[in-house]
Amino acid sequence: MTVHTIPFNQTMPSSSLFTAYINTFDRLSPFYALDPCGGVPVWERMADLVDQRNNRLPRREVTTALREQGHRFGVDDRSLAHIDALAADETLAVVTGQQVGLFIGPLYTVYKAITAINLAERLEHQLGRRVVPVFWMGADDHDFEEINHITVCNQANELVRLELVPNEPADRRSAAHIRFGDGINTVIDAFAGGLPDAEFKPAMIQLLRDCCPPDETFAAGFARLMARLFRGRGLVIVDPTDPALKRLMRPVFEREVRFPLRTTAAVRDAGQRLERAGYHQQIEREPDAVNLFLYHDGRRTPVAYADGRFSLRETGVSYSPEDLLRLIETTPDSFSQNVITRPIVQDSLLPTLAYIGGPSEIAYFAQLKGVYDHHGLPVPIVYPRASLTIVERRVAKVLEKYGLTVADFFGNIHATERRLIRDEMPDDLTTAFEQTRTVLTEHFGRLADEVASIDPTLRQATQSAQGKAEFELARLEEKAVQAYKRSNQTTRQQLEKAKQQLYPHDRHQERVFNIWPYLVLHGFGFIDTMFDAVDVERFAHTVVFL
Predict the structure, then answer these.
(1) Rounded Cα gap, residues 162 and 169, in angstroms
(2) In whole angstroms, how large is the CA radius of gyration of the chain?
């Protein structure tokens, strides 16, 4: 394995807020608490802030719930030991999380967990305290279309979307309540059929079948796969839909009801200040939006507030504040958090030192400082997750052959392709175009001087004629390139093959592909390779050549 890096501003040029966050934090300090690049003193400061909350942290209750979850998900002894460690006042946590996607979802879900584990180990050494990596599953999420599929590149180098159709409609039901159904076997069969026969294929496909049977939920299948994937790494997996944890979230739910729209106003104000500072708003909320969901008839429904009453959007059902407070007291698992209150409930339960997030999540946090203040919580250090592109050997050969880098595929690969085709065109043809262009310039220059001596106004007309001639010559050259391109299929096919692997659907590989094709080829040793590739002190996109 070899590793190269690409600056984030070359891989995500449109994300000015994220680029500023990692390069010029001072410009964003009004929106965040502590600089992730501040070194040990900053981490010690954050640890002190967590310690000040110890008398309010429900450590033992959380530990009891997580231990039961851990046994259910099949975590190993090291993870159970980390769960037990959370009961001690001196223990801190590095937290990350993601939606519970099919077969763990996109690669960056794995990279988040790896970042959390590596950072926790580094901070444990630096601070001389136990630091536990925690993965908070987005099991409450109801956006089924985002989690019900994977994309694979089959043996014919075609991008194929495999989508799960559940036995029952998934309309606004959370992932914790949706079972895979019979369709999961169809998806696994199709997935296996598109992969090459390899040493580890039978074991990996069987693991998917074992962890994702038809009668299991998305959330439980996700947790079991994560437990197996990170065996021996001490990752603590949290399912926040657990009724025992929901009871511990009641203070957050109650405060959102007692002070309706207070956190929404804080988010909207921060968004306006961000725009005035030259950045974009990541979270946009309607003025009447409450930052809670309520399960109604099995559907996760957003809550609004107006004229002293709470209402469920699109249903007509309404509640008084007293009604909702009684529901929170008696059935807290009827409620769930949204993107704004998710980190609040998380950090009200855990001794969070840092949260590992991607560029969008880091942008979310720019609008959450007032929300944390409202709930009396310190904002954790928001730490960028690892971002990687994996380059298989067969793809690396294509890059080497044409003198390309991975970054060449992050923009308009067709422009790169045209440049390569031009480079490969016969020298005589290329020279002929260059000479013709030179002759045009020389002859039109002389012609302009001659006609201008008769009538100076004709110089502009000559220049216009020259421009038209050069335009037609360029068109002819492009047609020649296209004709040569059609006659040279090898270059096109090899570049397309590389693009499908490196920048599928014109998106970063980590956002499209799943980890299991790599495990089929390389086994669990691939996970070890990824751990070695992730340097948590390196804020750059990492290219991993296998």
Answers:
(1) 18
(2) 28
Question: b/e string for 496-520 if b means 16 or more Cβ within 10 A?
Answer: eebbbbbbbeeebbbebbbbbbbbb
CA torsion angle 34 35 39 45 (round to 10):
0
Q: Which residues pair with 236 in a beta bridge?
A: 134
Q: How many helices (H) and strands (E) does the chain have?
A: 25, 15
Is CATH 3.40.50 what the domain over 9-142+220-250+340-383 is classified as, yes or no?
A: yes
CB atoms within 10 A of CB 322: 9
* Beta strands at 388-391 and 541-545: parallel, antiparallel or unpaired: parallel
Q: What is the pLDDT of residues 45-82, one digit of tens each?
A: 999 999 999 999 999 999 999 999 999 999 999 999 99
> Is residue 336 classed exposed, middle or buried when 0-12, 13-18 and 19+ CB atoms within 10 A define those classes?
buried
* Domain range annotation of the chain: 9-142+220-250+340-383, 146-217, 412-502
In the predicted structure, residue 222 carries a pLDDT above the cut 90: yes
Asked whether 340 and 96 are in contact (CB, 8 A), the reply is no
Q: How far is CA 495 from the centre of its chain?
A: 26
Q: Long-range contacts of range 299-307, CB-CB < 8 Å, 24 or more positions apart?
A: 299/142, 299/171, 299/172, 299/173, 300/140, 300/142, 300/172, 300/173, 300/174, 300/336, 301/172, 302/338, 305/260, 305/261
CA-to-CA dists, residue 196 to 101, 105, 157, 200, 389, angstroms: 23, 21, 11, 10, 21
Report CA-CA distances (Å) from 322 to 75, 263, 360, 452. 41, 19, 36, 89
CA distance 373 to 225: 36
Looking only at the bridges linking them, the beta strands covering 289-296 and 299-306 are antiparallel
**Two tokens, residue 58:** 């429900």
Q: Of 425, 419, 436, 417, which Cα lies nearest the Cα of 483?
A: 425
- For residue 152, how many C-alpha atoms fall within 13 Å in the half-sphere facing its CB? 23
Q: Which helix (H) or strand (E) holds 303?
A: strand 299-306
Crossing angle of helices 413-424 and 489-502, in 10° steps, is 150
Residue 396 has pLDDT above 80, yes or no: yes
CA angle 91, 94, 99 (to 5 degrees): 135
pTM reported for the whole predicted model = 0.88
Query: Tokens standing for 84?
Result: 């037990």
Percentage of residues of the chain with pLDDT beyond 70: 96
What's the burial of 159, exposed, middle or buried (CB within 10 Å: 0-12/13-18/19+)? middle
Look at residue 472 in the predicted model and tell me its pLDDT. 86
Task: Indicate the residue type of 490.
Answer: T
Per-chain mean pLDDT for the chain: 92
What is each CA distance from 503 to 16, 151, 255, 412, 415, in whole angstroms? 21, 13, 44, 11, 15
Residue with tokens 């990170």: 230
Token couple for 96: 């990350």
> Taking a C-beta distance cutoff of 8 angstroms, is the pair 65, 350 a contact?
no
Q: Report whether 154 contacts 194 (CB < 8 A).
A: yes
